Automatic annotation (TrEMBL):
This is bis(5'-nucleosyl)-tetraphosphatase (symmetrical). Keywords: Hydrolase, Iron, Metal-binding, Nucleotide-binding. The keyword Amino-acid biosynthesis does not apply. The keyword Signal does not apply. It catalyses: P(1),P(4)-bis(5'-adenosyl) tetraphosphate + H2O = 2 ADP + 2 H(+). Its EC number is 3.6.1.41.
């Protein structure tokens, strides 16, 4: 499947506004990749596919998590997390993506994880700060991203965790581990 065919297929999986978000993530991921020494083609590929499963019905995602042996503990946490590992499975099996780094960037784009690769960081950060994003603190994340991939991503995880605490929601531990790991690296 070439780039244009892939884009057409992903676009058909989501409403127009989510495709605009995806385009924003693609552009931002390429800029960040060039800035921080990551292959921009891989960053763009992960960005194209990162939300491919975002609009799947909840039951379909849950079935896939169970049937394909994806981490079952996800089922106890916010459904917003599920599309990322499901998307990585879809990217591999329905779009023929074989690059494990690209698949990792899709799999961890929402939660993060301990010891993220630079490509994973770039895609996760691009998802936080693409031009269409508006939430308190996003401009600070954009500013930090001009000089530090880790500090900008840390600010992103801080904002997600504060949001979840404010809403009284459970925090999926990978995000906490991702945040701790960034703090350990920056010491
Ligand atoms: N560690 C976490 N624990 C629980 N829910 C989380 C965690 N990280 C992210 N989320 C949920 O996922 C949402 C992020 O979704 P969003 O950024 O819109 O999706 P996408 O990553 O596809 O752009 C957060 O608003 C929050 O509800």
């Amino acid at each position: 499947m070439n780039r244009e065919q892939m884009i057409a297929k992903v676009k058909a999986e989501m409403p127009e506004r989510r495709w605009l978000h995806t385009e924003g993530v693609m552009e931002t991921a390429v800029v960040l990749a060039n800035r921080f020494g990551v292959d921009p083609a891989r960053a763009e590929l992960a960005a194209i596919l990162h939300d491919v499963a975002k609009y799947w019905p909840t039951d379909r995602m849950a079935d896939m998590i169970r049937d394909k042996g994806l981490p079952a503990e996800l089922l106890a946490y916010d459904k917003e997390l599920w599309h990322a590992p499901v998307g990585a499975w879809v990217a591999e099996h329905e779009y023929g993506v074989a690059d494990p780094e690209v698949l990792g960037a899709i799999r961890y784009h929402t939660s993060g994880r301990r010891g993220m690769t630079k490509l994973e960081k770039v895609v996760c950060l691009a998802d936080y700060m693409e031009p269409g994003r508006e939430f308190p603190g996003v401009d600070r994340i954009r500013e930090l991203s001009l000089r530090s991939l880790d500090e900008a991503l840390l600010a992103g995880f801080d904002s997600t965790m504060s949001f979840l605490i404010e809403k009284g929601k459970r925090i999926f531990p990978l995000t906490l581990e991702a945040r701790n790991s960034l703090l350990e690296n920056n010491r």
